[in-house]
Amino acid sequence: MRYKMNKKTAMLPGYAMLNLWILFTFFLIGWIVVASLSTTSGIFGGKILSSGFHPSNYSKALFTHNVATYFKNSMLYTFTACTGVILIAAPAAYILARYKFKFSNVMESVFVSALGIPQIMIILPLFALVTKLNIANSRLLLIILYIGINVPFTLFFLITFFKTIPKDFEEAAAIDGCSPMKTFWIVIFPLAQPAIVTVTIFNFITVWNEYFMALIFANTSELRPVAVGLYSMIQSMRYIGDWAGMFAAVVIVFLPTFLLYIFLSEKIIAGVTGGGVKG
Amino acid sequence: MKKSKSMMIIFLAPAVLSYLIIFLYPSVRTAFMSLFKVENITDAVSKWEYVGLQNYQGLQESSLFVQSMKNLVNIWFFGGLIVFSMALLFSVILTSGIKYKSFYRAIIYLPNVVSAVAMGTMWMQYVFSSRYGLLKGVFESLHLTTLTNIQWTSPDMIFISLLIAYCFGMIGYYMLIFMAAIENIPTSFYEAATLAGANIWQKFTKITLPLLKDVFRTNIVLWTISSVAFFIWSQVFSPLNPEPGTVTPMVYMYQMVFGNNMVVTDRNVGAGAAVGVILTLIVVAMFAITSKLLKSDEYEY
């Protein structure tokens, strides 16, 4: 116990704030969920509880307002990008963690420095490049971009983990006549599973919520992921006027990461503070 | 361990290649582009017209850009003040051995995993709504007429509303980092201080804060990186056009290069690149300043 709590009263305002905070969060999410099952006139009249149960808002949001398409797109982008980024970053992280060569430290810092480069610094030439190559507005382009922008973080996360795996595993495999490359995929990669799972959860959240790249590179309704799709829906809200449907869309958009968090919050929190990779 | 050169190349090549294409080449090109007048984003380099630092001067003269920089500074400074002090307060309370610690911690961090567009919509369309909003309802039931009548989304309040909503979501992340650092401090430090008669406040300022120096440095850099990338919240809070209260440099750049409304009329991609360079330099400068000011002392626990 770091602060003796015999003087509990000194912390009382803090406790009050903490509880108020939690209450507010619950109320906020709870209200949105209830409103998403209400009607637009119920929302405006302040009677979201007594305006009846309208799950049809969800089918309206999904099919009339295209959220189903956005959802499918987001699923596709998220799953392929999360897989791709591991296939690219894990082998590279292994080399940087295990082998010392002339520029290995420099290379590591160069990769890490990408975490500080704002997207606005890279977006213009990327846009010019994809226009020139004529690959703008395709699902593949977004997947490639999502893989590319998440490589530095994934690499950084996995290097730390690979450094903790004892070298005995490789030595034993070498004695058995296993080639280094095979050793990585058969022995090391499965060992790294806890770290790979944690970093994939983070990548999942990042890609699912990604907005700026999609806004610029997915310019048609069929290609949009949920974040941009929801935004375009908000923009046209004054013409659609379907507030209940909008709140249903909000719920659909936040549900996947929310559910992921409910089940994996301990792992996610441990990952943020660097303790999640101990398996 | 035997080195296998071919393996090293095969394993590193995809990551290095993706870095070169997605980070290095675009960054270098953006830096160059900021010194040229470029009419169209797809123009070949041969069509660029060298103008030196004129793009940067032009930005200085644009009142909307100056406003966007002011907003950025305010988000960084006031937002940082709110986020860091709340995160510290919560982390001190949560590491003091209270019940349901992981529950509180999980709920406070929750907004970080939810799409910012969804979070922003909840705030904008519910909490701040002038018709059925949460704040309006709460203040009304408490009979606080002045507070009830605040128009949270009006031009003179929108920045404050935006800041409150943004900070609400960010506190959890910094709280987690502070908490981990506080939990690393050996309890014996606090026990010794208690024996010496130190009160809570003294323990916090004399033990906890100095030992959090490294974490502060990391957090300030992270906060700067997320501040310069401030974009989604501005868009959600001003869905139609950028407004003086919500515009940020990234929004300005987006409107200038990709926008299709009449707010930013002078279409010069070079100036857009200059905005990118300025924001990157801010991050680099903050990194250098915090490394110098908050030099890490090596504590061994």
Walk me through this protein's architecture.
The complex is a heterodimer of chains A (279) and B (301). Chain A has a domain at 66-241: MetI-like fold, CATH 1.10.3720.10. The two termini of chain A are 26 Å apart. With 279 residues, chain A is mainly alpha-helical. In chain A, 75% of the residues lie in helices and 0% in strands. The model of chain A is unreliable at 275-279 (pLDDT under 50). In chain A, helix 10 packs antiparallel against helix 14. Chain A is built from 14 helices and no strands. Chain B has 301 residues and is an all-alpha fold. Chain B has one domain (56-293): Orthogonal Bundle (MetI-like fold), CATH 1.10.3720. Helix content of chain B is 68%, strand content 1%. Chain B has helices at residues 5-33, 54-61, 63-94, 101-109, 116-127, 134-141, 145-148, 158-184, 187-195, 200-211, 213-228, 232-237, 249-257, 269-293; strands at residues 36-37, 49-50. In chain B, strands 1-2 form a two-stranded antiparallel sheet. In chain B, helix 3 runs antiparallel to helix 11 (213-228). The longest helix of chain B has 32 residues, at 63-94. Chains A and B meet through helix 1, helix 4, helix 5, helix 6 and helix 7 of A and helix 1, helix 3, helix 4, helix 5 and helix 8 of B.
Helix/strand layout:
The complex is a heterodimer of chains A (279) and B (301).
Chain A: H1 8-36, H2 40-44, H3 56-64, H4 67-98, H5 104-113, H6 120-132, H7 139-162, H8 168-175, H9 180-191, H10 193-209, H11 212-217, H12 226-235, H13 237-240, H14 243-272
Chain B: H1 5-33, E1 36-37, E2 49-50, H2 54-61, H3 63-94, H4 101-109, H5 116-127, H6 134-141, H7 145-148, H8 158-184, H9 187-195, H10 200-211, H11 213-228, H12 232-237, H13 249-257, H14 269-293
Antiparallel strand pairs in B: 1-2
Helix pairs in contact in B: 1-14, 2-14, 3-8, 3-11, 4-8, 11-14, 13-14
